[in-house]
Write a structure and sequence with these properties.
By secondary structure, this protein is of the alpha+beta class. It has 3 helices and 6 strands; from the N terminus they run E-E-H-E-E-E-E-H-H. Strands 1-4-5-2 form a 4-stranded mixed beta sheet. The chain has a two-stranded antiparallel sheet with strand order 3-6.
């Protein structure tokens, strides 16, 4: 088993790139193995490591098809629906709450709001 070449931060030779750098160039690793790594030293912890890929072996990014765009739109729409009240919240529901803010904090709802389910008198 061969070990990976390790370069210090900002000293990697030309021809290597991280995943983000490949993506900025319109490329993807395309199944190739990690070719090298860059290490950035830190004071009290282990070094930060970034894996590098060969640019000449990278393949172009696959284009988005109509079916992929539709699947992405459906997934994003599902992230906006509150599981408690089943309404579109108008924003992506935070995973920390797990529901829209109206369901998570019903006491903070304004008086007479249509989405307020608290048993207050209607004027």
């Amino acid at each position: 088993m061969a070990t990976l070449p390790v370069y210090r931060w900002r000293l990697a030779p030309d021809g290597y790139a991280t995943r983000r750098q490949l993506r900025a160039l319109g490329l993807r690793p395309g199944g190739q193995a990690v070719a090298a790594q860059v290490e950035r030293p830190r004071r009290r912890r282990g070094p930060l490591v970034a894996y590098l890929y060969r640019v000449d072996r990278a393949k172009p990014v696959r284009p988005m098809t109509a079916a992929r765009w539709a699947a992405l739109a459906k997934a994003n729409a599902a992230r906006r629906v509150c599981p408690a009240c089943r309404r579109d919240a108008g924003y992506v529901i935070p995973p920390s709450l797990g529901m829209c803010s109206a369901c998570a904090f019903p006491d903070n709802a304004p008086e007479g709001a249509s989405w307020n389910s608290s048993p207050t008198s209607v004027r």
